[in-house]
Amino acid sequence: MPETADRQAVLDRAAEGGRITPEEALDLYRSAPLHALGAAADAARRKRYAGTEHIATYIIERNINYTNSCVTACKFCAFYASPKSEDVWTRDLDDILRRCAETVELGGTQVMFQGGHHPDYGVEYYEEHFAAIKERFPELVIHSLGASEVEHMAKISGVTPEEAIRRIHAAGLDSFAGAGAELLPARARKAIAPLKESGERWLEIMETAHNLGVESTSTMLMGTGETNAERIEHLRMIRDVQDRTGGFRAFIPYTYQPENNHLKGQTQATLFEYLRMIAVARLFFDNVAHIQGSWLTTGKEVGQLSLHYGADDLGSVMLEENVVSMAGAKHRSNRMELLGLIRSADRVPAQRSTTYEHLAVHEDPADDPADDRVVSHFSSTAIAGGSAHPELNLIEAK
Ligand code: SF4
């Protein structure tokens, strides 16, 4: 076990932007005092963003859930329905375009296509939908899907993942959201998603995408029974690929939500574990620019705290979200509240693009945007019994 002085030396090195080993990261994650960990991660963030370190970003986006039909049956998932189940639904293209129109109307800049592994949806389905979105709304960035969807659609269409990526990129996909990473180490992944591709395969497909010029974010699902060592191994696997491609723009850990799924909430990551992960991720990823705090799954205060533990981004005002909400995430927010949260964390809020450019820096609260329709879950109509925001019907596709 390292001496306290040795551990502080590792923290100091990482705070300066130096590389730490997976073993050192695991030791910090397990044993470093929480405040020392946060201070080092915050120093690393400030150093990386020297000159704009007073800013924390957010984005306005919408998830578009196109179907819940899924053949993969992940044990942590509360969203999917078996393809033969009477609970299956799909959204038609008109409905999807209407949701895109609302996103544009409300100042959103990004849509995230998110759905099950439908037994019939091959590359052609995504080509048709992405092309239609881009034709009507060229200003919307399609930041969607991940290696799991690519693997699935390529199989359905009988093509390689590389060809699938080329085709959906040509049709309009701008970048991958890094969905389906869950936990990459084999034991932890098999335990919760036995029918998904392996973690190595997930990374191989993301590396292929990066090499084709399609960048992505990366994610991690915490709290389904994985060990601390497996959490750090997940980071190592991503960092190794990033050393070769530089294609991961951000790392976004989020916590397992325990309702309505087969794991039945037996395990969850604590909020302290989450904050420790944010901090260790900032220190470990000397090659990933952005670390995102997730208020949606951990709550607003923890999201706010994450800005002091190395996060530089507070995610999104998600105009529609169903997937983690159906698993129990109850947190809701709106743009005004998010701006307030960021300010009371002593940062200046800035709306960002998908590629993290600052679209609007909200220096003066007196100049804040005042559209009170910009709320999370503006429309979350896939939830049984869920209700659309009353404004929903007022905005028609143009
Ligand atoms: S997480 Fe995705 S792939 Fe897994 S069951 Fe849910 S919808 Fe299907």
From TrEMBL:
It catalyses: dehypoxanthine futalosine + S-adenosyl-L-methionine = cyclic dehypoxanthinylfutalosinate + 5'-deoxyadenosine + L-methionine + H(+). Residues 56-287 form the Radical SAM core domain. GO terms for molecular function: 4 iron, 4 sulfur cluster binding; 7,8-didemethyl-8-hydroxy-5-deazariboflavin synthase activity; iron ion binding; oxidoreductase activity, acting on X-H and Y-H to form an X-Y bond; transferase activity, transferring alkyl or aryl (other than methyl) groups. CDD domains: Radical_SAM (cd01335). GO terms for biological process: menaquinone biosynthetic process. Pfam families: CofH_C (PF19288), Radical_SAM (PF04055). S-adenosyl-L-methionine binds at residues 76, 182. [4Fe-4S] cluster binds at residues 70, 74, 77. Pathway: Quinol/quinone metabolism; menaquinone biosynthesis. PANTHER family: FO SYNTHASE (COFH) (PTHR43076), LIPOYL SYNTHASE 2 (PTHR43076:SF1). This is Cyclic dehypoxanthine futalosine synthase. It comes from Streptomyces abyssalis.
